[in-house]
Write a structure and sequence with these properties.
Blueprint (H helix, E strand, L loop, with lengths): L1 H23 L1 E12 L2 E9 L11 E8 L2 H10 L4 E3 L5 E4 L1 H6 L1 H10 L8 E5 L4 H5 L9 H11 L12 H8 L7 E8 L2 E11 L2 E6 L1 H10 L6 E6 L7 E7 L4 E5 L3 E15 L8 H28 L7 H9 L10 E11 L12
Parallel strand pairs: 1-4, 1-5, 5-6, 6-7, 13-14
Antiparallel strand pairs: 1-2, 2-3, 7-8, 8-9, 10-11, 11-13, 12-13
Length: 360
């Protein structure tokens, strides 16, 4: 019995050492950038450095491969590494704007068919620059760019709420649906810093438009993906400053499509987070008066968003899909629908507020 136990311990120890050695022999890819320039695909891997090093700038390194086909570019990138390429840890795929406009279908098809990639990574679109420049934009605070982008997307719903947390699997479901123009988070370099830049809209298998951060925030509200949307109300009586509320969606926005109208119904909750206008929040009617004013502001934002997407002919709300699911027939000229809105905002009387002096 003792010999059997000893044998099991030895076998388990050997297995553990083998797994550890195997991990050291792998190049763990955390981020991938893909560009298309001069009729060539350019693929860059951001690889985690599994060697102990106190310098934060050495936590990751990049390798590059290029080729006439996406398969050749990936293969050349992998061949430039002495270790086995490990793609199952992939967090972020960055697609350059030019590649997204010309070769997105080829890129999506390759990523979908690659057996060693799990479809839980976040695809994003580079705006106004190459994907490579974004991936190589390391700093001491953010030495692993793919992890920085992943964190920006996940945490943004608590801040500006202009990103979209969509993994590749979910994206492909919408990408293959002809009745919806899917959206992806757009990123850019602003003052040499990786920054969220709104949402990239895809139509017909390629990038067609990039919504502004303001439109992206409204899109999240309409899709019930918003945890935080701020509305600013200027002070009256010649006072400078604003009263600001936070809106909480709580899955309370509904979109109804008919042959002639698009009706948006929102029943939202909010709390006042800042007041420099001197409102007396001990009085109940103040909340009701403010709610009516904020409802008009949000109605205006809905109309501006609708004007933007209809002008660009971008069905990012999936209006054609909603109509087909209800009527089982196609909706022609969806961008000619008349917009109707019904908005109710209830401001929490127990919201935390703080006053700001006029000269601040």
């Amino acid at each position: 019995m003792k010999k059997l136990i000893l044998l099991l311990v030895i076998l388990l120890s050997i297995t553990g050492c083998y797994d550890y050695q195997e991990l050291n022999d792998r190049a763990i890819v955390s981020g991938i950038s893909i560009d298309f320039e001069d009729d060539n695909y350019i693929v860059n891997y951001e690889i985690l450095n599994n060697q102990k090093n106190e310098d934060p700038m050495l936590k990751a390194y990049m390798v590059e491969g290029s080729g006439k086909t996406i398969v050749e570019a990936f293969q050349n990138a992998s061949d430039s590494i002495s270790k086995e390429t490990y793609l199952s840890h992939l967090k972020v795929l960055i697609v350059g704007e030019n590649a997204a406009r010309e070769k997105l279908r080829n890129i999506a098809d390759y990523m979908l068919r690659e057996p060693y990639i799990r479809n839980i990574f976040s695809p994003v679109i580079a705006k106004g620059t190459t994907a490579k420049k974004i991936l190589q934009n390391t700093t001491k605070e953010s030495p692993v760019v793919s992890e920085q982008i992943d964190s920006l997307i996940r945490n943004n719903k608590y801040n500006e709420n202009i990103s979209l947390k969509v993994d590749f699997d979910h994206f492909m479901d919408e990408y293959e649906d002809e009745r919806i123009d899917p959206a992806l988070t757009a990123i850019e370099l602003l003052d040499d810093k990786v920054t969220l830049a709104g949402m990239a809209i895809l139509d017909g298998g390629k990038l067609t438009n990039i919504l502004s951060p303001e439109s992206a925030a409204i899109l999240n509200v309409l899709n019930n993906e918003s945890s935080n949307h701020r509305l600013n109300l200027p002070c009256e009586n010649e006072l400078e400053g604003y009263t600001i509320i936070n809106l909480y969606n709580n899955k309370k926005t509904d979109i109804e499509v008919t042959e002639s109208t698009l009706k948006i119904t929102s029943n939202l909750k909010a709390e006042v987070i800042k007041d420099s206008c001197g409102y007396d929040f001990r009085e109940s009617q103040i909340y009701e008066e403010l709610a009516r004013k904020y409802e008009k502001i949000l109605e205006k934002e809905y109309k501006e968003f609708w004007n933007t997407v209809t002008k660009e002919n971008t069905d990012v709300l999936g209006i054609r899909k909603k109509y087909y699911q209800k009527k089982r027939k196609e909706l022609e000229n969806w961008n000619k629908l008349k917009l109707e809105t019904e908005i109710k905002i209830k401001i929490n009387k127990n919201g935390k507020t703080f006053e700001v002096k006029k000269d601040e």
